[in-house]
Design a protein that fits this description.
2 copies of one chain form a homodimer.
Chain A lengths: L14 H8 L3 H8 L7 H14 L5 H8 L4 E7 L4 H16 L3 E7 L7 H11 L3 E5 L17 E4 L11 E5 L1 H14 L6 E4 L5 H16 L8 E2 L4 H14 L4 E4 L2 H13 L9 E3 L16 E4 L1 H16 L8 E4 L1 E4 L12
Helix pairs in contact in A: 1-2, 1-3, 5-11, 7-8, 9-10
Chain A binds a DNA duplex (30 and 30 nucleotides) through helix 2 and helix 4.
DNA sequence: GCCATCACTGACAGCGCTGTCAATCCAAAG
DNA sequence: CTTTGGATTGACAGCGCTGTCAGTGATGGC
């Protein structure tokens, strides 16, 4: 029993074994395995049968070495369990697998001092055909230079920071913010305050931009925003700070997690939601509909965003290059019970 | 600029290039790269300098092919963004990377009809030195047979379902349940109801077992439990079902997410928490301290659990086999505001 | 009915590295 | 000064597959 852990790998059958068993050449087996043309139906079947009988599994390392394609995609993702990034990881993995690739994952953690460049080097060394970036790119990570020749997909909001060849897909953060702010303004609020996410993330910057631009377009005053780090704890702390600075009647919070903390701070200060203060979140997390006060929020299809990005990336890998390189997917407002008209007409 | 996407990979330098540049043999470079012995200090330095000057990066595929070790670990993880599994993924990735391995991730989704055996086959084909399983193993997945000779780590609660050679680490679900139930009993509740997680998961089964055994040990009656699927939505629905069946004064819910839904259902039915009903969750999610009613819950160090498991797995891979193969890590109760004595003494 | 054409098929040379084993060198021992 | 043994170094043969190119029949045109 204890031998189970020893490498009893049953002397894996190789392509040569299959060839011998099927009575054909190595190359013909290779053709069948890779679904190439120039193999007659009869031979193809014989080989296929041999493959099944022997339980043949192609050796990825040998394949990669000979073909210089690993059929593996590397992903560098910030380490969070928040709804958005989580859904993105999910969508990426699924799409990658469906395209016949596998996923090599590296997560970055802010506190870890583990820089992106190093993570990239490691992935490239292991061998990847493409690279996906789903993590903050700010002044500190100036543009992830030279991903060493592999196509790069950033799941992010397209902006000037991205290089020319890069594929960038994201959700329409700016429009989401616009919808949130307009919803609050249309309820009668004079203006809307903003509790932003970690500004290292483009998503946080773009949500803040959308908020600001919408207020300006509406001729509303623009209160000083505060920024957290996406956690409920930071939402709690930053909302307290905001309350020290003024008395909002409406707040657009950059994600649902922080909104939970923010609402907690509002209630602890004696304010009710939405009675005294309306709150809109972002992401539509799983639990947001079931909070004490079900949360009005912006829903984005992160899974689909990821999927589209992966398709685009694989097109670039195999040399087909038609679709636009940078685009965003639409989002929409989900109205629940955390928003209402201001108590006395604003 | 558009050439960025073409594979302009700068004709990667090979070990041969380094050898030539350093004036030594291929094998000597190999020794330096792999930190083997039998290389004099002077030669080692020369080679190291050559490596840096040329920016040499070992080719993973070639290495894997020649050595039959990929330095890659495969992980099959259920696709959820819940706090526990999420933290486990995080911990695994970090530990794997710190040990110099890379992580190939496959996520399974219940609705997808994508079975574990197939995922394993794919990972083995790509080449992995070890396999990690973090996903439900129930009657439907009878024991993940024959991982083809690679050491297997299950992050799960050790039980009979696991095979002899398997490494199993988990958190002490049973003890967590015990602490939750005892806390509620000690507040004066006559008994404690249970809203369980998805029974496909060992965690759900063990939490239910701990709950039942603790009640029995205390001589309390054991109400019929209900089970959800870890989501807030299922917590909401199943709590309504529980309320149809009886009038609990205390409920132990199998995770925080479901607890949020459960509390929502309680409040919608006119009950207050903890006034009418006390609720204990499990996992201590990020937002649990900031809910309208901060949640009493069980905290487990999932990251550490994952880390310990990975260390153990790598020991098995390199053939060192000392530490016990199956163990659990302790958990502890975090008391917040969702629990209180029953309204009229039970 | 003969040659160009095309669909198949296979031989062979590596891909970049590691494992094995033989060769070499140096210092200490005899 | 020669012998012995350990430490260092290198030559060479693959790992399992793909890419290239040559070879083989069969098909079709004139």
């Amino acid at each position: 029993m204890e031998s189970v852990s020893r490498a009893v790998r049953p002397a894996a059958v190789s392509m040569t074994d299959v060839a011998r068993h099927a009575g054909v050449s190595l190359k013909t087996v290779s053709r069948v395995v890779n679904a190439e043309q120039h193999v007659s139906g009869a031979v193809r079947e014989t080989v296929q049968r041999a493959i099944e009988e022997l339980g043949y599994q192609p050796n990825g390392a040998a394949r990669a070495l000979a073909s210089k394609r690993t059929r593996r995609i590397g992903m560098i993702a910030a380490s969070t369990s928040f709804s958005g990034p989580s859904a993105i990881l999910d969508g990426v993995e699924k799409a990658v697998r469906q395209q016949g690739y596998s996923l090599a994952l590296v997560r970055t953690q802010p506190d870890e001092g583990y820089e992106v460049q190093h993570a990239i080097a490691q992935l490239i060394g292991q061998g990847i055909d493409g690279l996906i970036l789903s993590q903050p790119v700010g002044p500190d990570n100036p543009g992830i230079q030279g991903p060493a020749g592999v196509p790069l997909l950033s799941i992010d909001y397209p902006d000037a920071r991205h290089s020319a060849g890069e594929i960038v897909v994201g959700t329409d953060e700016v429009d989401g913010a616009r919808q949130a702010v307009n919803h609050l303004l249309s309820l009668g609020h004079r203006t809307v305050w903003h509790l932003g996410g970690d500004p290292a993330w483009a998503a946080a910057r773009q949500r803040a931009r959308g908020w600001r631009e919408t207020l300006e377009a509406a001729g509303a005053s623009v209160p000083e925003p505060v920024f957290g780090d996406w956690t409920a704890a930071s939402g709690f702390a930053q909302m307290q700070k905001m309350l020290d600075a003024g008395s909002p009647t409406a707040v657009f919070v950059a994600n649902d997690q922080m909104a939970i903390g923010a609402i907690h701070a509002l209630e602890r200060s004696g304010r009710s939601v939405p009675g005294d203060v309306s709150v809109v979140g972002f992401d539509d997390a799983d639990e947001s509909a079931f909070l004490h006060t079900p949360l009005t929020t912006i829903r984005a299809d992160f899974q689909d965003t990821a999927r589209q990005g992966v398709f685009r990336l694989i097109e670039a890998i195999i040399g087909r290059d038609e679709a636009p390189r940078q685009f965003t997917l639409p989002v929409h407002l989900v109205i629940r019970e955390s928003t209402a008209p201001p108590r006395n007409g604003g």
